[in-house]
């Protein structure tokens, strides 16, 4: 828990805006509804989508089923030894266990190198250990802003086992929002202002909708790479 707790400023007020789904959403940054390159992006207005343009990215099917299994095989033994934590009311996350991993087998290391190449600026110093966060089906991550002091410009995460929805809300205007559909086996990347001027959260199962469609949340494991602050 230390890693997340130490590196974040937790927002005490849990921002919920399910009613916004009843309004028409702007679900592509381009005018073309058929623009399949942004099917994972949805927001409350065109302006908010423009504000995060280039700072949020989801790459569906970034890893294959075999690669997902390889990652799971490496992280499951360590996670099995831990229990999900539900009881800390003030924590940023609810229903989770976590671990860090520095050494990986060859296949997983090659997957992580692909993540590093696409996600981080060349030469950017990276945090050595990779963070593995296991959310129970009932688990969720509350809105929080990553701390400039502890986190670099970029976070990149692989989503294993389940689809989920990540919501970003500008700190200054909590009526606007951007949703990212994190499909199973996708990679998400969040950079710069989207990381530091927006809260981000992983929605709990009963609030997990994307563009009005239910996105069932099962157990989800994320494998997260970060760079260091400069
Ligand atoms: O599980 C995830 O992918 C999100 C993790 C997160 O919110 C964070 O590390 O700041």
Question: Which features characterize this protein?
Answer:
5 helices; 230 residues; two-stranded antiparallel sheet; alpha+beta; globular; 11-stranded antiparallel sheet; disordered N terminus; binds 2-oxoglutaric acid; 33% strand; Jelly Rolls
Can you give the mean pLDDT? 85
Enter the CATH topology name.
Jelly Rolls
How many domains comprise the coordinates?
A: 1
Task: Look at the structure and name the CATH superfamily.
Answer: Alpha-ketoglutarate-dependent dioxygenase AlkB-like
Structural class: alpha+beta
CATH architecture assignment: Sandwich
Q: What summary fits the major beta sheet?
A: 11 strands, antiparallel
The whole-angstrom Rg is 17 Å
Secondary-structure element order, N to C: HEEHEHEHEEEEEHEEEE
| N/C terminus separation | 24 Å
Kindly provide the name of the CATH class.
Mainly Beta
Count, helices: 5
Approximately how much beta-strand content do the residues carry?
A: 25-35%
What is the overall shape?
Answer: globular
Ligand inventory: 2-oxoglutaric acid
Number of strands: 13
Spans where pLDDT lies below 50 across 5 or more residues: 1-25, 28-35
Helix content: 10-25%
InterPro entries: AlkB-like_sf, ALKBH7-like
Cofactor: Fe(2+)
Chart the SSEs and their pairings:
Blueprint: H1 2-7, E1 8-10, E2 41-43, H2 46-52, E3 56-59, H3 65-80, E4 93-101, H4 106-119, E5 130-146, E6 154-160, E7 164-170, E8 178-182, E9 187-191, H5 192-196, E10 198-202, E11 209-210, E12 213-214, E13 220-226
Antiparallel strand pairs: 1-5, 2-8, 3-9, 4-5, 5-10, 5-13, 6-9, 6-13, 7-8, 7-10, 11-12
This protein binds 2-oxoglutaric acid (AKG).
């Amino acid at each position: 828990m230390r890693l997340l707790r130490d590196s974040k400023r937790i927002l005490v007020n849990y921002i919920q805006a399910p009613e916004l789904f009843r309004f028409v959403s702007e679900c592509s940054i381009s005018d073309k509804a058929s623009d399949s390159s942004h099917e994972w992006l949805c927001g409350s207005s065109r302006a908010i989508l423009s504000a995060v343009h280039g700072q949020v990215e989801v790459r569906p099917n970034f890893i294959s089923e075999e690669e997902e299994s390889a990652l799971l095989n490496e992280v499951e033994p360590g996670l099995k030894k831990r229990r999900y934590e539900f009881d800390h009311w003030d924590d940023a996350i609810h229903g989770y266990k976590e671990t860090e991993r520095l050494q990986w087998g060859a296949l997983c290391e090659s997957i992580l190198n692909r993540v590093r190449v696409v996600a981080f600026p060349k030469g950017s110093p990276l945090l050595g250990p990779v963070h593995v966060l296991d959310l129970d089906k009932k688990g969720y991550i509350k809105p929080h802003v990553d701390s400039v002091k502890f986190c670099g410009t970029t976070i990149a995460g692989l989503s294993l086992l389940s689809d989920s929805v990540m919501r970003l809300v500008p700190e200054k205007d909590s009526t606007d929002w951007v949703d990212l559909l994190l499909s199973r086996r996708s990679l998400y990347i969040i950079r710069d202002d989207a990381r530091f001027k927006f809260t981000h959260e992983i929605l709990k199962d009963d609030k997990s909708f994307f563009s009005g469609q239910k996105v069932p949340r099962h157990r989800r494991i994320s494998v997260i790479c970060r760079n260091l602050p400069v």
